[in-house]
Structure formats: structure tokens, C-alpha cells
Amino acid sequence: MSSDSRVMVITGASSGIGEATARVLVAEGHRVALLARRGDRLSALASELGDQALAVQADVTDYPSLQAAAEQVVAHWGRVDALINNAGVMLLGPFTSDQHEERRRMVEVNLLGAMNATEAFLEHLEASGGDIVNISSVAGRTARAGNSGYAATKWGMNGWSEALRQELLPDVRVMTVEPGIIDSELREHTTDPDVKAMIQTAYDSLAIPAQDVGETIAFMLSRPKRMTINELMLRPTAQQ
Ligand code: NDP
Prior knowledge:
The chain is α/β, with parallel strands linked by helices. The protein is built from seven helices and seven strands. 48% of the residues lie in helices and 15% in strands.
């Protein structure tokens, strides 16, 4: 293992952007702790990636499971150099009482989940002088009819992330990434059939590979410590 090999924790590493980011970081020589709920997916990815990957089952809405994850990562590799708060769900639809549970779940996973994971890993990031990368969205900078709950979580994440940046500088860097339409499982979970059909059409025509986001995150993390890419939005070129 090279001396440049850092220990990076990725939440939501069982699919999509998290999985793609893990592959890119391992290819660059880093070690990755893969966190998510689906243990079978994590184990399969970890065995494919080898000694540089560790599968750690954890639910970002369950703080004790994140504390246990932090202990497991530190027991295994002795340190944590970066946390990528990527776990998220997108359950789009109009603001109606039918969406009550879906909105609550998005806030719990997308916003409070990132705060929970940060709380669980923060002392280790402060000890190493590490980095936090928060995966927001174009929906954290724009709002449309039909995405109020999801946009609220991502606008919330942007505000939290910027305040955290100011609190933790200069020891811990905090970065925000705002992707556009990316190919992943995210589009599958919306339950409203009309909205889901609209999303599928947009994704089928525009989505770019999750690897593009993984490579962007890896670039941001590779910048010298004297500078920080505070906020970065990326979209498919053809996206409005
Ligand atoms: P995926 O659905 O492919 O991945 C979401 C990941 O989040 C999965 O690994 C899932 O794992 C994990 N997750 C969900 N709930 C929990 C939970 N309670 N605890 C731990 N992990 C959880 O979608 P993406 O890769 O696209 O999404 C990753 C992030 O990127 C999200 O924050 C999303 O909002 C953001 N994003 C995505 C865009 C896109 O177009 N795809 C655009 C902009 C932002 P598991 O189910 O195993 O727990």
C-alpha cells in the first residue's frame, strides 16, 4: 500500500454513485469502507475490490449502527481520512398527504443521515485532518413542482454543508457536489406511476454514468490541502 493510500468511508456504497466512487478510489490506491444496508451487495463489491475494501453494513438513519461502523473501520485500518455522505433516496411526487411517509424518509436518509454519519466519524476526521464530501444535487440549487420534498433535503444539505465548512476549517475540508441526471437505481424508487414514467423518460435520454461523478469526487479529494473545491455542480451536457 502506497503512503498516499487514504482511508475513505462511503455511505450508500451498494449501488450507483457510491459504488462507482469506490471503484475509482480503489483504482487510485485508496482504501474504502463501503457502508449501506444491503450487506450482500457490499460483500460482493468488497470481494471484487480485494484488500482495499471493507464491507460494513450500516443504516444512516440508525446512529448506533454508524457508531459501530466507525469502530469497525478504525479497528481495521486505524484511521479515517475522508467521509463521503452519499446515501440518499429520491421519492418524487406532488405535495399531498399520500407522500407524507416518503417525505419523512427522504429527510431522515438524505439530510439527517448525512448529519448522523458525520457525527459518528467526526473525531476520526479531525484526528487525521480529513475531508467530508456531501453529495447534494442540482435539486439543491433549483426547485420544481413535484420535487418539493427531495429539493428540501438537498437545499438543506447545501446550507448545512456550508455552515459545517466554516466551522471545521482549516483542519477538515468540507465539499459539496451537486450532480444532475446520473444513471443509477435512484430513479426506481419513486412510487407515483405518472411521475416515475416521466423520470424514466428523462433518465433514458440524458443520464450519464455514475463513474463520471466518482472521478469528479476523486479529483476534488486529490487537491492539495491548501485549497478546497467548496461546491461543484455537474450535469449531462444535454441537460437543461
Ligand atoms: P442509488 O439508489 O443507486 O444509491 C443510493 C444508495 O443509498 C444505495 O447504496 C442505498 O443502499 C443507500 N441508502 C439508501 N437508504 C439508506 C440508508 N437508510 N442507510 C444507508 N444507506 C442507504 O442512487 P444514486 O447512486 O444515484 O444516489 C446516491 C446519491 O446521489 C443520493 O444522495 C442522491 O440523492 C444523489 N444524486 C443522484 C442523482 C442521480 O441522478 N442519480 C442526481 C443528484 C444527486 P442500501 O439500499 O443498500 O442501503
